[in-house]
Amino acid sequence: MPPRRRKRLDPSAFTLDVDKIRGGAYSERSIVRAREILLATGAASGAEGRPPKVVVQISAECRGIMAGTDEAIAILKLGVEEWSALTVHALHDGDRVDEWETVMTLEGEYTAFAHLISLCLGVLARRTKVSTNASRFVDAARPKSIMVFPSRHDHWLVQPGDAHAARIGGATNMWSEAPAAGRNAPSIAAVPHSLIAVMGGSTVEAARRFAEHAGEGVQVIAPVDYENDAVRTSVEVARALDGRLWGVHVATSEHLVDRSIIPLMGDFPPAGVNPQLVWNVRNALDAEGLGDIKILASGGFTVEKIRHFEEEGVPVDAYGIGAELFAGQCGFTADVVELDGTPQTRAGRERRENSRMERVR
Fold first, then answer.
1. Is the pTM of this model over 0.85?
2. Computed from CA positions of residues 183, 189, 193, 196, in that sequence, does the dihedral angle turn out positive or negative?
């Protein structure tokens, strides 16, 4: 029996500006002009004025976790005049990919989809970078959760697709109201520091109001660094939100030393979120019979820092990351590898078959 085909997201899951995409508004200008030349002058191959038929091969320039394939397919499906005239094979979101592995092929008349290729490359590059970064953090923290705080680190328009990519990489939540493509809004919500400020600096009051407004179906996470006294604040907010609090968010600035750390200073770096601070919070909660309250730690966490915390057995239940999700790059390249049934390609970019790809219906 052949393997069961995995389901792809419907193009409607993505918010695409179809009219502008079809018009080449977001495309690489040189490719748009090349397409215009072919449309105006006919086939470069001289086959009775017919536009050239090509196979375009898209390859990864990095190793990683594929994401953006369904989004790229949506661009093609909605961007071409006649989808049935285009043959597409592709890997799936979540597939592991090696450097220079073929991830997608497009076969059809070049003028039908040339202006969409750069959009597909950009989507694959962006989303694969996010999913790959997320997977590295997830691997470091396993079996604990990675939660992502992206909103202040990048443009708001990229949030839904990034949320989907981060989940492909294994991250559990994107702290944004923008739902991931194909997903509903998250069921865990964090109290913002600004609400604490307008509540006169009371984390307890802000958390109580937030929980009341969020409704019974939403679990609440409260930050406990507003007054730089994470231990006292954690206990107070846990008592006040009995049954509604998922956990406390320890996010002390790397430029501050929490009040509970000052008496212990001397043999470890005291600033920011350090192992001793997490232990102080955990021990205080446990001493009050609040052992079910979890601890989310964030603030300058890299893959290496998470590994250090895990090796030391620090009682963190989940880690939060922000800008680190968007670090680095993971590019893709597209090359014509066949022209009207005959091999035709740039030197060094020969055709590379990939049996893992599936035909897109």
1. yes
2. positive
